[in-house]
Structure formats: C-alpha cells, structure tokens
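Hi all, long-time lurker, first post. I run a small reading group and we've been trying to get comfortable going from sequence to structure in the token notation. Rather than ask abstract questions, I figured I'd post a concrete chain and ask someone more experienced to write out its structure so we can walk through it together at our next meeting. Sequence below, copied exactly:
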Amino acid sequence: MKNYLNTIILSIAVIICVSILAISLVRIRTNQGAIAVTGSATTSFTADLIVWRGAFSKKATTSKEAYEKLKNDTAAVKAYLTGKGVKENEIVFSSIEMEENQKSLYTSDGKFIGNSADGYTLTQRVTIESNDVDNIEVVSRDITELIDRGVEFFSMPPEYYYTKLDELKIGLISKSTENARIRAEKIAEQSGGKMVKLHSASLGVFQITAENSSTESYNYSGAFDVSSKKKTAFITTRLEYLVK
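-- Answer (accepted) --
Happy to help. Here is the structure in token form:
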C-alpha cells in the first residue's frame, strides 16, 4: 500500500513539473515573436561585352562549286570585318553546313510526281565577340555594304553582356540586405518591440532588364536582358528577425 502511495505521489509531481515547463515554453514563444521583411536594391550599368552573329550562303549545281563560291565570300567577310577594326581573334567561323536542294516535279496536267535534286546550298556562320562594344555596334549596322558586294549576309541583332556580373550582384545583395534591416528596425520600433537577432535570410528575385524599360515587369522567375547595352539590375532579399 505504501509503494502504491509513493507511485501516485511521484506521478502527480511529474505532471506538475511538465505543466510548469509547458507554461514556461508558452511564455517564451509569446514574448519572442518574429518580423519578416523583404529588402530590394537596383543599379544601372552598361554592358562591356558584345556578341554579334551572322550567316551567309551560296547555292550551286554541285557542292564543290558552292564551296568555292562560299570560300570567296568568307574571305570577303573577314576582310570587311578586319578593315572595320575587328580583331582576328574576335572572329570565329563555324563549320560549313550543307543542304541538298530539292525541286518538285509535276505532269503537264499539274499532278505532283515527286522531287528531284536541284543543287546544293552551303552556309557559313560567323560569331564576333568583343569588348569594343561601340565599334561592333557600328559594324553590325553597316553590314549592308557586304550585300552590295554580292555577299548574301544575314545579320542577327547584337547581344550585350556584362563580365563583372558577380561583383555587381554581391554589391546589390549588400544593399538589399541593409534595406531589409532598416525596414525591420522601423517596424519593431513602431510596434514597441526590439530586434534580438537575425533568424533566417534568403535571396529572392534577381533579374536584369533594359534601362528605363516600360515593357518589362518584375517576375518571380527573374529575367536576363541581352538586347540592350544599358541595363538595370534588381534583387530582393528576405530577412526574418526575432523580436521581443
């Protein structure tokens, strides 16, 4: 009977201790809340690398004849580019692409009866990658001079990049984090609380758009503009602070 009484007393003591601990935990969690804020930062910059691509083709009855014609055009394109101040190591010609042409055959009454070989078309692609952004811009606009010389040159719009993007991003993260911290301090002050410590931090959207663009909007998946020389970078940072 005495052992049974001792067991009951011990059980009651354990229940009381657990209850006191639970109350303490509730008080701690109640007295220490959290503030989650999102900071942002932007900066404008100018691209320091340009990539410009183009292609030209020649058609002939035989592949050999088409190749000879294309080889002459390749020499003309290279001479034109270097004459405009483009360095040889900035010019890359890809391997030649060859396509066998086909023509449709019909009977005298207009009935289709099949295809037959109709010569070959050879295509040469060229890529110019340079830090001389302004000069390559001018060259890409004046490429019609090659067309006047009989070169069927197809030009793609230049693409603009920035080689110091990592440095720029680190600077933006620092500014965005500071922006978020200031916001958290203001919220804590207005609510009568005090920031204790940083609980968590994460990066949000990072994207690059054309400077002063009215057609591009910020989106969660981000964006990376390559069509404009002048750009704007944007980043967000989410911080969560414990407050009391």
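A couple of things your group might point at:
The chain has five helices and nine strands.
Residues 1-31 have pLDDT under 50 and may be disordered.
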